[in-house]
């Protein structure tokens, strides 16, 4: 009977249209992010646009229900760092009727999906809702000074979670994590592999609940007992075991971390917005056609 039920469930999944599959994925990710508004903010779209996708509102020109197009789905996957074709992958239904994320992305490989699977005893198991919550969550987006105060516990966490700008990530993190938006281009990070620059406007995801390790990028509080000044720096462990820091690859190189300084978090991700979300929303035009840019011979 269980085998028959599995076949029925598989057939049910395969009978779904791509629009239905994307609608289920859309519903899933919105639930993970907490609301349509949070999802809209994360992808740089207006809440009304997201509402039209969710409710399959009729297009005024074509009369057809609005849904995620292939190009839009790919863009969202890129923004949220989802696997390619994540929106096009059916959600499995187990024998109990529970919906689970598939970890097959149609590329010929079975990839472990960190968003829905976890490893236990060498085997991948479906993640519980609590475990999935580690991977996708909206967090406060602050300037570096407020971020420092947030990490030090001087700003109320509940209030900051409700108010102000937000950012989301799929990187595993604690409920203490937050984002900071860089105000300048001064931080250039070098390592043996390449040069990496943190530009003005880049968003750094900071994890305070993590022990710093050699070569981490970290948020440092200088003058902890007095002025509490924040900097972003590359960390290195000195020969004697003390912390060494290098900010913006100054010619002095690594220097001992000053007395009365505290490492307030580790940078676990760098996000880069090429165009700000409010500008993206203002420029969005449902009537725009890419062929408008076609160059014609004179």
TrEMBL record:
CDD domains: HTH_XRE, S24_LexA-like. Gene3D superfamilies: lambda repressor-like DNA-binding domains, Umud Fragment, subunit A. One of its GO terms (molecular function) is DNA binding. Coiled coil: none annotated. Pfam families: Peptidase_S24. Residues 102-130 are annotated as: Disordered. This is Peptidase S24/S26A/S26B/S26C domain-containing protein. It comes from Neisseria dentiae. The lineage of its organism: Bacteria, Pseudomonadati, Pseudomonadota, Betaproteobacteria, Neisseriales.
């Amino acid at each position: 009977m269980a085998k028959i039920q599995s076949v029925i469930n598989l057939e049910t999944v395969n009978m779904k249209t791509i629009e239905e599959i994307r609608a289920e994925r859309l519903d899933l990710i919105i639930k993970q992010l907490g609301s349509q508004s949070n999802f809209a903010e994360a992808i740089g779209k207006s809440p009304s646009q997201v509402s039209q996708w969710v409710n399959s509102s009729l297009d005024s020109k074509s009369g057809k229900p609005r849904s995620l197009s292939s190009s839009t789905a790919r863009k969202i996957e890129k923004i949220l760092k989802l696997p390619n074709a994540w929106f096009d992958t059916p959600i499995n239904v187990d024998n109990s009727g529970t919906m689970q994320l598939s970890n097959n992305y149609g590329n010929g490989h079975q990839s472990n999906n960190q968003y829905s699977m976890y490893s236990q005893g060498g085997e991948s198991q479906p993640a519980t809702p609590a475990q999935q919550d580690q991977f996708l969550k909206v967090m406060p987006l602050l300037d570096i000074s407020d971020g420092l105060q947030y990490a030090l516990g001087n700003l109320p966490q509940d209030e900051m979670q409700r108010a102000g700008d937000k950012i989301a990530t799929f990187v595993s993190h604690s409920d203490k994590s937050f984002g900071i938006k860089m105000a300048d281009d001064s931080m250039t990070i070098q390592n043996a592999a390449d040069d990496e620059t943190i530009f003005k406007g880049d968003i750094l995801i900071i994890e305070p609940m993590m022990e710093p390790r050699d070569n981490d990028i970290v948020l440092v509080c200088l003058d902890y007992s007095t002025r509490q000044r924040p900097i972003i720096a590359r960390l290195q462990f000195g020969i004697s075991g003390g912390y060494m820091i290098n900010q913006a690859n100054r010619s002095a190189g690594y220097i001992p971390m000053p007395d009365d300084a505290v490492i307030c978090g580790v940078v676990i991700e760098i996000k880069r917005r090429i165009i700000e979300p409010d500008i993206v929303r203002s420029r969005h035009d449902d009537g725009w056609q890419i062929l408008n840019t076609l160059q014609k011979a004179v």
